[in-house]
Amino acid sequence: MNDAVHAKIDTMVTSNDVVLFMKGTPLFPQCGFSSKAVAILEHLGVGFESVDVLQDMDVRQGIKEFSDWPTIPQLYVKGEFIGGSDIMMEMYEAGELGELMAEKKVAPAAS
Amino acid sequence: MPMASDDIKAMILEAFPDAIVEIQDLAGDGDHYAAKVVTPAFAGMNRVKQHQAVYAALKGKMGGELHALQLTTGIPE
């Protein structure tokens, strides 16, 4: 992978507590899976940074290699790759995603 | 390019011969699938690793031909 893209993604996931790589924006998701991921984070009430991969082809390709994960969305918490929308949904339904956010001391969304 | 559900199932079974694989065509259009893969081979792997193992079995088709595959993985009880 291109080192510059790698470094850029690394900075994104380490300088923000919760980062969602998605297609579109939280207000206008461009894919059902991204929309689902946003809904889960909003339900949990955590603040998150979103990255629209459709705006940056290097990041769109680079994130797949960075995480060794073929699809978007992808969730990172405190620099750790958590999973895609299916894993988020599974963890959310089991109450594990909320616990993870609490354990990692992630701040709630500013209201 | 859509994939036939039998092809998806065959690829997963090739990698995990003892898996129980259920494929569901969500929209009836041959393009939106849900797959459930349960195998003892997932023991000791977290969810991310289990999903990555299935993606590896699909040999790069995930994220390309297969955009819409909802994946659930597990270990038999």
Automatic annotation (TrEMBL), chain A:
It holds the Pfam family Glutaredoxin. PROSITE patterns: GLUTAREDOXIN_2 (PS51354). InterPro entries: Glutaredoxin (IPR002109), GRX_PICOT-like (IPR033658), Monothiol_GRX (IPR014434), Monothiol_GRX-rel (IPR004480), Thioredoxin-like_sf (IPR036249). The keyword Iron applies. Residues 18-82 form the Glutaredoxin domain. The keyword Iron-sulfur applies. Keywords: 2Fe-2S, Iron, Iron-sulfur, Metal-binding, Redox-active center. Belongs to the glutaredoxin family. Monothiol subfamily. This is Glutaredoxin. It comes from Parasphingorhabdus litoris.
Automatic annotation (TrEMBL), chain B:
It comes from the Bacteria. InterPro entries: BolA, BolA-like_sf, BolA/IbaG_stress_morph_reg. Pfam families: BolA. Gene3D superfamilies: BolA-like. Belongs to the BolA/IbaG family. This is BolA family transcriptional regulator.
